[in-house]
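ARCHIVE CARD
Drawer: 12
Card no.: 0347
Subject: one protein chain, sequence and derived structure
Cross-reference: see card 0346
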Amino acid sequence: MPRSIDLQHVKRLLDEGAQLVEVLPPVEYDEEHLPGAVNIPLKTLNAAGAKQLDRVKPVVKYCYDSL
């Protein structure tokens, strides 16, 4: 179930082996992304695109939010 989490929670999840997924378009990912993040653009985030993820590990998805 998706939910918002703060930076400290993200850091803890990553320390525990979570996967970091950037869902913005590839051009924006190429310009700047967090170390270790994989790019699965939201428009291609489907069962086939998600196969590169480990189903056992938590996933932290992030994108730009103007709020």
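Annotation on reverse: The chain has a mean pLDDT of 86. The longest helix spans residues 7-15.
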